[in-house]
Design goal:
Elements: E1 2-3, E2 6-7, H1 10-27, E3 51-59, E4 64-72, E5 78-85, H2 86-104, H3 116-123, H4 131-135
Antiparallel strand pairs: 1-2, 3-4, 4-5
Length: 136
């Protein structure tokens, strides 16, 4: 198995992933004082209305995160959807900030970005065919 340019033994990867799963289960056991949420089933919206279902996550340890959106009609058919990483959200935030400046007629502005990947993407000349490239 090759991952990020390095070769890994499948048997070692299986053992490693099994130990991580065990560690995860030990860390996320339900405590006695904590109540589990009941399972809920998604229901279609009434005719003539759309339902927007959203979810987001963020891992504080490494700063990764993402969002997901699904919009469904009264029959449950997906009419639109979006899934994006934290990097994509950074790019969307930059775009939104610049659009505000344009709409207000502000031309002499300074942009502060804390995401070095986005700084690099903005400064790179050439076509970016990724999903984030369409935003930039």
């Amino acid at each position: 198995m090759v991952w990020r340019g390095k070769f890994y033994n499948i048997a070692n990867m299986l053992e490693w992933s099994s130990s991580l799963l065990l560690e995860y289960k030990q860390c996320h056991q339900c405590s006695e004082g904590k109540q589990k949420r009941g399972k809920s089933k998604w229901k279609c919206p009434p005719r003539g209305r759309l339902k927007v279902s959203i979810n987001g996550s963020f891992a504080q340890e490494d700063g990764r995160g993402g969002v997901g959106v699904v919009i469904r009609d009264y029959k449950g058919f997906c009419v639109a959807s979006l899934a994006a990483s934290a990097f994509h959200m950074e790019a969307q935030s930059l775009r939104a900030g610049l659009l505000i400046c344009i709409q207000q007629g502000w031309q002499d502005v300074e942009v502060e970005i804390d995401c070095m990947n986005l700084v690099h993407a903005v400064q790179t000349n050439g076509e970016d065919l990724s999903i984030v490239g369409r935003v930039i």
